[in-house]
């Protein structure tokens, strides 16, 4: 039975991370919090530039979590303050941002950034011996070899597989690709190409959607030149507004689109309009049926008045919660205790709990817990990654969404193996 609801999004992204393995061992210690001492938690994200909406969502999600945490007494008796720095989605800006937080401000951990810049932030966090709870899909982060790294979202590899497996489940054998020119978008292509080959799907052509273009007439002509049965896509939301406006003018809105979760955001609705968004556009969004989501949405509305999340909010909400609970479990914000505490409260075994207050109460009662987040189950594998499942979401004309299908990690793996 389809369930109408609103769910979070993820801006998938990728960068090269060859330097990360070199930073596997930290050399200095982080400050620990003691009773009544203030605690400074860093957040790095794109507050300016093309992905500024993502950064603002990250800050909102983290602050919503901290409002609850501080109302419940803070972490280890100390109020937590968020130290926010802008990386403009640029590694060159991310380095001084991380250096300020670590060297000048003395943060005990960093939530964010996205995988566009975490290749330069993570080595600095590891050197300082503090945890880094990243948000982003970059496949280059699939097997990071150090204990301080935690990824709060599924990999682009799994995102690409989910999109392609859904296309296969609908019987599509010919698809076109519409992919943005940013590295965050291009990172999906290898996974889509590989899974399409396994499933016997022909990619008729691949068209690049350049950020900032004012028209996509030629790209549309290329996309439809070989009559694909569906189009698999990820590109920036402003470009989607332009492109779908031109598709409407040319009477080409009938072909199905299967998109990454980048388009599951209120900004997409306002960019393309509700009637167009409610057409045959299907979004593979991680985080199906997460029992922590209703509590997140209640807190979001309480503290901000919003009734629908934006990009990044749920992942940073989960990151702050699992960090704070990990510190409470470990009795410290310092390594290696904090990392061990995060794993213990995230993976269990213990009583499942879905909001910070309930989880904290169980810890104070001497109970073991298994925190279930708003964007995922927050169960980390050996490389500290989380996985699906994926909702296949479809917009309604009123701006809400309906889950039309669910793909578990097992179903994705089985489909690719059978193909």
How does this model look, in words?
A hairpin with a 5-residue loop joins strand 14 (390-395) and strand 15 (401-407). The protein contains 15 helices and 15 strands. With 419 residues, the protein is α/β, with parallel strands linked by helices. The longest helix is centred in the N-terminal third of the chain and has 20 residues, at 52-71. The strands form three sheets. The chain has an eight-stranded mixed sheet with strand order 1-15-14-11-10-9-7-8, with helices on both faces. It has a five-stranded parallel sheet with strand order 3-2-4-5-6, with helices on both faces. Residues 1-35 have low confidence and may be disordered.
Summarize the structure.
The chain is of the alpha/beta class. Helix content is 40%, strand content 18%.
List the defining traits of the structure above.
single chain; 419 residues; alpha/beta; five-stranded parallel sheet; 40% helix; disordered N terminus
Compute the separation of the termini in Å. 27 Å
Measured by DSSP, the beta-strand proportion falls in 15-25%
Strand order of the largest sheet: 1-15-14-11-10-9-7-8
Instruction: Indicate the mean pLDDT.
Output: 89
Helix/strand class? alpha/beta
Query: What percent of residues adopt helix (DSSP H or I)?
Result: 25-40%
Number of helices: 15
Low-confidence stretches: 1-35
- Strand/helix succession: EEHEHEHEEHEHHEHEHEHHEHHHEHEEEH
Specify the overall morphology. Answer: globular
User: Tally of extended strands?
Assistant: 15
Biggest pleated sheet: 8 strands, mixed
Kindly provide the radius of gyration, computed on alpha-carbon positions and rounded to a whole number of angstroms.
21 Å
